[in-house]
What we know:
Blueprint: E1 2-6, H1 15-34, H2 38-45, H3 50-53, H4 62-72, H5 79-100, H6 102-123, H7 135-148, E2 153-160, E3 163-170, H8 171-192, H9 202-218, H10 221-230
Antiparallel strand pairs: 1-2, 2-3
Helix pairs in contact: 1-5, 5-6, 5-7, 6-7, 6-9, 7-8, 7-9, 8-9
Amino acid sequence: MIPLRDLNPRRSVPVVTVLLIVLNCLLFFYELQLGEQLDSFIMSAAFVPAPYFAAGFDPGLASEALTSALLSMFLHGGWMHLLGNMLFLWIFGDNVEDRLGHLRFLLFYLLSGFAATLAQSLADPGSTVPQIGASGAISGVLGAYLVLYPRARIVTLIFLGFFIRLAEVPALVFLPLWFLIQFVSGLASLAATTSAQGGVAFFAHVGGFLAGVVLLFVLGGMGRRRRQLTA
């Protein structure tokens, strides 16, 4: 299933969502200019779990780890990686930003990304593969969207063998199904990969999604909803 748009109007301009998309694109264009130096840049700049978690986490490395995790949220491994993430961020981010407010949404997004990095690291602490991509933070957006707008309709491309169908799928169906796929795929990846192999960071998706649900309440997203409805 590929979401194309949601039928969920917003009341404010999604300034932060647009800014995040622009920053991700700018960093990706920078990556394209590096040529043969790209691999060394990724290894030095992106978050790699093993130095921080393989022998137990060293609090003295916290600042370095946070910096690497932050930069990793804005790096991508290819055009499809970037475009897929930005599509999800654009579809679901604007409404969550509308509910939380601009600055609170930015904090929410970054904290979701950090939680996603932590979840993937705990799942494979000895990994020497860089964790890159915005999908962990965006997964947090999906979790919050599910809580806030379960009845919102998602215009979705559904592939049924050789047939493609366009359908309006409720968020209450689309997002739990997406989460289930990530969780099952994550469990399968534990047996199918080693710390030296790459692939999709499924537990970053799982951790980010769950963090998004929790952070929505911690940052007062539901309280803002009640105040808006009674204003």
